[in-house]
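Researcher: Good morning. I'm working through a list of sequences from a screen, and I'd like to move beyond sequence-only analysis. For each chain I'm collecting a predicted structure so we can compare shapes side by side. This is the next one on the list. No need for commentary yet; just the structure.
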Amino acid sequence: MSTVSNIEWTDATWNIARGCTKVDADCKFCYMYRDSMDGTRYDPKVVKQTKTVFDFPLKYKETKSKVLPGSRPLIFTCSLTDFFHPDIDAFRHEAWDIIRRCPHLIFQILTKRPERIKACLPHDWGTGWDNVWLGTSCGSQEALDVRGRHLMSRPAKLKFLSLDPLYGMINLYDLDNDLRDWHDEICWVIIGGESGNETGKYRYRECYPGWIDHVRITSQIAGVPVFVKQLGTHLAKLYGLKDRHGRNMDEWPDELRDLKVREFPVVDKVEGVV
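Model: Good morning. Structure tokens for this chain:
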């Protein structure tokens, strides 16, 4: 676990395992695969339980969030794997127990396997735990139509979407009938363009300001907070930004001022989401 994260919407990351297997086109240029240096550091296709950091939340000393004032610390759970990957079934209960023992922290669990959520929840989940946010990651309309449906049907205190890496237009009002009222369930939308290399296996796909702005506008019309995480490498290169991920909003040109939005769900410092 890292006590400091460069991900703008969380305070720290906690990995109960590392390694994953790709599910669809969203995973094409997966940063975990890229950062594994083609297997010289670790095999990205092998899901392996961590050892030294597995119980890190129990040792985490921060009591307040730095990115969301008034909130408990936000912990992005499994940035190098998928919490609901089948290869984690054998020890996921241990992770749930740690989460259960840390009500002073908020665990942000983001998955590309929301269809497995129901079978993997703890016995005392009920309508959800106050310290767990469940989200699904989608980069295209096709992925959202499938994964969004599964997330919508699962109980949680807070559900969110991460449209990152966004590599196509997504219309949140143009979903199938099962998802037309998504804004009644989804409490937060993260948006980000894809980052990657200019050459080699792990490159990046284009993202356009209009795609980001369309999601921003439709989300805010529905009253859903929006967090624009980054522009991605394509736009960073187009606008000559120093940060190749396009994360630093101070660098963004004035024509993108409407995209400078980093909102969070409304969270009470004691009782959780309100």
